[in-house]
Amino acid sequence: MKSNKWLIVLMSVLLATILAACSGNSGEAGGGGSDDKDIVSFWAPFSGDDGPFMKKIVDDYNESQDEFTVNLQIEPNADYYRNVDLAINDGKNTPDVMIMHNEQILSYAEKGLLREVSDIVDGELTDVYHESGIQGATVGDKVYGLPLDIHSLLFYWNKDMFEAAGLDPEQPPTTREEFIDYAQKLTDLDNNQYGFVVPTLWPQDFILPTIVAQNGGKLYEDGKANFASDAVVEALQFQLDLIEKYKVSPTDVQADGEVTLFLQGKNAMHLNGPWMLAQWESSNLDYGVAAVPQLGTEVQSVFAKSHNFVVLESTNEEKLPAITDFLKYVSENGLAWAESGQAPASKAVYESDEFKEINEQGSVMAGQFDNAVFSPKVENWELAIDPLREATNSVLLGQEEVKKALEKAEEEANKHLEK
């Protein structure tokens, strides 16, 4: 009898735990695969400083009405798509709606895993979101994602270093010529001070494609990687020249070395994304933020990515009213996302006076929406881009010649694209 009593107690505890988990609210794991049509499970990869801002949006939505409940589950960014794939393959506890980067949408859509979302928004999508965001989520003539934001490079500079070099601290460079001139004036090798520290790794994923686009070039064309084209060669050679010819950058820059030097007041100009806001704000730097200068030779462009809300094809149709209500709310009440440093793609947000007052970098980034270019919509692009990353790194470290490195990268990339 004694053992039976303990068994009953144990079963009661387990039942209570299960019930508590199932009733979880935003910010808690759980909810995925729920049969309750009024409960939406929402997965996102915001495991960094941006996570609390998304949690606030979800919390505010849940408090704004009592008809639907959204359960936010934040997955580690590094393991996000692996966990998504495991859930999809298992067929259990899959999210009803999730965040997906624009470059991932094609692969999931062509496998029949995503639901077209055009009918989730009343009226024309481009009346609600910036056209560039919609284009980034379109495959063929179908839209599979509703853009949360469009994030691109931004130009940061140290105002104190500008003033010390005799430059106007409120006037950043806008052209290649001005950029080189400023970088040379800001460089003082005797004091280990540089005008622009060229990163050899991240965020070259954004920097090189930006300059290529500004050169009027494309990384992918006519069904193949186009890494050895004149526009790409010129873009990479320009960065190498900043190191070897103009000597405004140190050699052998290791991962995040350019960030460290910027924070130390030893790197006057810096290209990076909105995800750096928390670091900049916690430092004592007097810095400015502006649109990326036209470092290329032809046109003003900026490489961009976007976070998108996508709905899995397996999501129960009965959940769509709840999902629709939530996404409509986010499109109209996404100011918290702007507080993270991002630029929401919803016109109701980025065109509002409140948005412009939150932080300067969000407004600057929204001002670049019209010039945004995205990754090509091809299978295996993420694998194909790896050889370009390796070539860029080896060239900027002085280990390979520009043309040869890019030719080799192009050959390797096309092998991935042919699979």
From TrEMBL:
| GO terms of molecular function | maltose binding
Under InterPro entries, the record lists: SBP
Q: Which Gene3D superfamilies match?
A: Periplasmic binding protein-like II
Which GO cellular component term is one of those annotated? Answer: ATP-binding cassette (ABC) transporter complex, substrate-binding subunit-containing
Signal sequence coordinates = 1-21
Keyword line: Signal, Transport
- PROSITE patterns, alphabetically? PROKAR_LIPOPROTEIN (PS51257)
Q: Extract the CDD domains matched here.
A: PBP2_UgpB
One family from Pfam that matches here is: SBP_bac_8
Record keyword Signal present = yes
Q: For this chain's UniProt record, which GO biological process terms are given?
A: maltodextrin transmembrane transport; maltose transport
The text of the family note is: Belongs to the bacterial solute-binding protein 1 family.
Q: What is this protein called?
A: ABC transporter substrate-binding protein
Organism annotation? Oceanobacillus zhaokaii
